[in-house]
């Protein structure tokens, strides 16, 4: 069992700093969960969330995107191959899997609660080098002011709760009740579109967390979205996975 991480005093203090709103679009690092968030795995197949292709197209064109899943590397890659082309995968800032949780072998093979501590992301020189202004300004780096974790479980965001955009878990053949003409990912995209004008993401999410069926719903065509493509269930063997993959 891993110890439950807690927010640092520095983090809590920063989340209380009033967010300034800017007219310009600021860089935003979006960290994506996979299973239960963008897709749900059904045996050997994958069922995508509605508009997942458009959502990913929007993210890759408008933000900086990385994937962090508690699944094993092979299964993460299978899901990515279903959702993204090789060219699109090359645009990802990073792809982290179960091996990026600092687990012992016993923990890796066991069903335990995992925590996505964003400080680990921010401590990565490789990821920091992907900030668009890193080579120009010494103050340009990813932190709690400009990072969003999209995940369907609150527990995984214990250490940085105000950088967490919580969405309902995707279940097989079942989606949450929505306002007519909207989708979960459309609403998330519109929230992100507003959030990238914030000078302090942690403060903005703390004061106005994402709520389904609020006033957010992105116009896909206006934002450069693409037509929905069917995601066919693959035939790959999905048995090589630990019991607590997300």
From TrEMBL:
Family stated for the protein in its record: Belongs to the TIM50 family.
PROSITE patterns for the chain: FCP1 (PS50969)
Bilayer disposition of the protein: Single-pass membrane protein
GO cellular component, one term: TIM23 mitochondrial import inner membrane translocase complex
Subunit (UniProt): Component of the TIM23 complex.
Pfam families: NIF
Function description: Essential component of the TIM23 complex, a complex that mediates the translocation of transit peptide-containing proteins across the mitochondrial inner membrane.
GO BP annotation list: protein transport
InterPro entries on file: FCP1_dom (IPR004274), HAD-like_sf (IPR036412), HAD_sf (IPR023214), TIM50 (IPR050365)
The protein, known as: Mitochondrial import inner membrane translocase subunit TIM50
Highest rank taxon of the organism: Eukaryota
Boundaries of every FCP1 homology domain copy: 23-195
Subcellular location: Mitochondrion inner membrane
Keyword field: Mitochondrion, Protein transport, Transit peptide, Translocation, Transport
UniProt cross-references to PANTHER family, sorted A to Z: DULLARD PROTEIN PHOSPHATASE
């Amino acid at each position: 069992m891993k110890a439950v991480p807690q927010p640092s005093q520095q983090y809590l203090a920063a989340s209380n700093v009033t967010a300034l709103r800017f007219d310009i679009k600021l860089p935003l690092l979006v960290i994506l969960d996979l299973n239960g968030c963008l897709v749900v795995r059904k045996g050997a197949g994958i069922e995508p969330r509605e508009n997942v292709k458009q959502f990913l197209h929007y993210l890759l064109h408008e933000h900086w995107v990385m994937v962090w899943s508690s699944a094993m590397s092979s299964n993460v890659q299978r899901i990515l191959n279903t959702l993204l082309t090789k060219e699109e995968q090359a645009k990802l800032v990073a792809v982290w899997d179960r091996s990026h949780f600092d687990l012992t072998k016993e923990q890796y093979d066991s069903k335990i609660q995992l925590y996505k501590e964003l400080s680990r992301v921010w401590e990565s020189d490789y990821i920091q080098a992907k900030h668009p202004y890193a080579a120009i300004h010494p103050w340009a780096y990813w932190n709690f002011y400009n990072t969003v974790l999209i995940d369907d479980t609150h527990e995984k965001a214990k250490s940085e709760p105000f950088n967490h955009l919580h969405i309902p878990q995707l279940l097989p053949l079942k989606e949450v009740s929505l306002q007519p003409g909207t989708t979960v990912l459309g609403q998330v995209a519109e929230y992100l579109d507003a959030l990238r004008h914030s000078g302090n993401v942690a403060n903005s999410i703390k004061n106005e967390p994402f709520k389904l069926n609020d006033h957010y719903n992105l116009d896909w065509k206006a934002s450069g979205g693409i037509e929905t493509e069917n995601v066919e269930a693959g035939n790959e063997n999905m048995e090589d996975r630990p019991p607590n993959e997300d």
